[in-house]
Write a structure and sequence with these properties.
Elements: H1 3-33, H2 37-40, H3 42-61, H4 67-87, H5 91-118, H6 125-154, H7 156-177, H8 191-196, H9 201-221, H10 224-232, H11 239-260, H12 265-285, H13 290-305, H14 308-319, H15 324-351, H16 358-386, H17 398-403
Helix pairs in contact: 1-3, 1-5, 1-6, 1-7, 3-5, 3-15, 4-5, 4-7, 5-6, 5-15, 6-7, 6-11, 6-14, 9-12, 9-13, 9-14, 9-15, 9-16, 11-13, 12-13, 12-14, 12-16
Length: 404
């Protein structure tokens, strides 16, 4: 992997820490700003909503800009938004800043994904994406527990300042390491061509799978810190350690998925989501037993994150070389899942089942993800039956690599 891919992974780590650290900060934020836990959960949805809007919108807006300038610009906005949120601790303003920083993160992630797959051969795109996305799992292993500890001892605003500083370092690294110019080895596609690349039915089945696989894990992870304290009965000081174990499971799943996603994306997706469905259902039944909940949390992360390289391999394989806008829509789909899942879990919590009910929500999303994966596989097989066999010189094209 080229060095810049690891630097882009560091960027997803710094910004992903902000996206996921709210899982450990929700009780602290809710108490400090005098809102309910379910209201505080809207901060997760607000960030994801910003990403849903920001990914395609900002990608189109910066299509003609040098990629390095756009990536660094998005990170500057991200840093400024976190500094402002820390300086003005008001819930409404915090919601707005979460939307703004979510949009900036979406723009960064979309362009970083395109840069990563542009720098490697077609049969290593899943691996490259696993490196970039591994920043998210590292944010769970290191960033989320560290942010939780920081919030417990110095307040949640200190965690926001820490994210701002790390993101500033990331922006500096991108500025120094990414070559200038309009791209990183790939030509700039015209807007009309990019829009036409979306008119493929199986692509939208893949987008649905992206959203549902994320929802299956985020429905639980968004309230995992609260579940561990209020239902499982784990001491507050041990919650960061459990969240770190969750991150270890995520990294393990991501590593396995990254190694085999290019060869067998459907197998990875079906295995991962079946695992999440079973684990989430078990979690709903045993949420008050610490000795069971902790290993289930690790398995949940492993099953959920092993699917991330596979959903990216599916989408970029279908898109081929016109991948900028289509890749941004995949980021939006990813964050539709992040936005919807905490909202649905919050409704279930308030409806009566309580925090243990989030396991049922996660299991339902996982079953739906299995169904969308089967639909994608059916459409892909039909496409292969009705499409003429490519000439030998084209057999290594992205579509053939990702459809196997």
């Amino acid at each position: 992997m080229p060095l810049i891919i690891y630097i882009l992974g560091f960027g997803t780590f710094t910004q992903g820490t902000s996206e996921f650290m709210l899982s450990g900060l929700l009780p602290c934020v809710a108490g400090d700003l005098d809102v309910s836990l379910s209201e505080a959960g809207l901060l997760v949805s607000a960030f994801a909503a910003g990403m849903v809007v920001g990914a395609p919108l900002l990608t189109l807006a910066t299509l003609r800009l040098p990629r390095r300038a756009a990536l660094v610009g998005f990170q500057v906005v991200f840093v400024a938004g976190h500094a402002a949120a820390a300086l003005v601790p008001h819930f409404g303003f915090l919601l707005v800043m979460r939307v703004v920083t979510g949009m900036a993160y979406a723009g960064f992630w979309a362009l970083a994904s395109v840069a990563a797959v542009s720098l490697v051969p077609a049969d290593r795109r899943g691996k490259a994406m696993s490196v970039v996305v591994s920043g998210l799992s590292l944010s769970m292993i290191l960033g989320v527990p560290a942010g939780t500890l920081l919030a417990q001892h110095t307040g949640w605003r200190a965690a926001f300042w820490a994210v701002a500083v790390m993101s500033a370092l990331s922006a500096t690294a991108v500025l120094l390491a990414l070559p200038g110019g309009r791209g990183t080895g790939a030509s700039q596609s015209r807007l009309r061509t990019e829009v036409r690349s979306l008119a493929v039915p199986r692509l939208w089945a893949a987008y649905a799978t992206t959203a549902l696989t994320v929802s299956a894990t985020i429905a639980i992870f968004s309230y995992l810190g609260a579940l561990l304290q209020d239902v499982t009965g784990i001491a507050e000081g041990l919650v960061p350690a459990v969240l770190a174990l969750y991150g270890v499971g995520a990294l393990a799943g991501l590593t396995v998925g990254g190694r085999i996603a290019d060869r067998a994306p459907f197998g990875v997706l079906l295995t991962g989501m079946a695992t999440v469905a079973v684990v989430a259902a078990a979690l709903a039944l045993t949420a008050d037993i610490p000795a069971v909940v902790i290993p289930l949390a690790v398995l949940l992360a492993a099953g959920g994150f092993m699917t991330n390289p596979a959903v990216n391999a599916r989408v970029f394989g279908i898109l081929g070389e016109t991948r900028t806008l289509g890749g941004a829509v995949n980021i939006a789909a990813f964050n539709v899942g992040i936005a919807v899942a905490p909202w649905v879990s919050g409704l279930v919590i308030d409806a009566g089942p309580g925090l243990a009910g989030i396991g049922r929500v996660g299991a339902a999303f996982a079953v739906a993800a299995v169904a969308s994966t089967l639909l994608d596989r059916h459409l892909t097989r039909r496409h292969r039956r009705t499409t003429p066999t490519p000439a030998p010189a084209l057999r290594d094209a992205p579509e053939s690599a990702a459809s196997r």
